[in-house]
């Protein structure tokens, strides 16, 4: 039996695993995805890289600033100044380098989708598609609306997290041939809330043309969430071309991504939820706020709580 199973290899799950592992605990992290990082993600297309989840990260707290600093020391992250002159940290050569760096040395099982977490005596069974893990304690760090799928809608923790809200988001990854254009400010009601030239970030490969990531605003994302992704890409590309002042025939690549649970709209207001016997925890950015640092704060707080108990 494993001491602790953590479900989700996003920033919250990795922060929790890192601290427990460093304290000598036996931890396994499972994630249904093919890559580490959850919403801190990088998609490759040929030589191009697109950060289609969080585009950058910053720290308000000293401890998380140290984490980013250490990632920088190992060349997993670097500073980047955006077109507004703001300085951020970004993963190198893509944002996914940040969770990959955090996961170094951890036991992470990718491609492992959990479909139920059920009590078994004094421990828990974590049931996956093709295998089952037994653990003394389980930490679930999936987006709040997905936790009911693992525990069942009647589980007592579901009532505790019922007020959490997460908003969806649509993302466009596009490549433009020729001279690198400059994004013009959006007019009122422009459906794109953010446009970033990804190839201007440090450590990206030299490419022919330029690589862009555009995020749709909330109204557009809600309105087109269930549309086929090629249709979403076709819509968003027109808005992007307008903002960049280029004709659509210069677009050499356009792919849309749907984030059903993109950003936290209404957080829980405490760093985690747990059963009174402290054998089952729920955490993630949605406990604290909409930022990567909030996910890290939640995962770290769970680990600290677990470490105060006898395992
Ligand atoms: C488009 C976009 C833009 C953003 N912009 C910013 C920004 O500018 N600044 C910022 O700080 N933050 C930003 N964020 C938010 C940031 O990405 C998140 O706050 C943070 O990554 C959340 O981490 P997490 O670990 O809580 O959750 P997640 O990253 O969602 O991790 C949860 C993990 O659980 C896994 N999982 C789910 N269900 C199962 C299952 N049944 N079995 C196994 N595994 C499962 C998922 O695969 C995922 O890897 C942005 C996010 C998006 C999507």
UniProtKB/TrEMBL annotation:
Name the lineage: Bacteria, Pseudomonadati, Pseudomonadota, Alphaproteobacteria, Rhodobacterales
Enumerate the PANTHER family for this protein. Answer: FAD/NAD(P)-BINDING OXIDOREDUCTASE FAMILY PROTEIN (PTHR16128), FAD_NAD(P)-BINDING OXIDOREDUCTASE FAMILY PROTEIN (PTHR16128:SF5)
Q: What is this protein called?
A: Flavin containing amine oxidoreductase-like protein
Q: Which domain of life is it from?
A: Bacteria
Q: List, in alphabetical order, the Gene Ontology terms for molecular function in this entry.
A: oxidoreductase activity
Pfam families associated with the record? Amino_oxidase (PF01593), NAD_binding_8 (PF13450)
Q: Which residues form the Amine oxidase domain?
A: 91-307
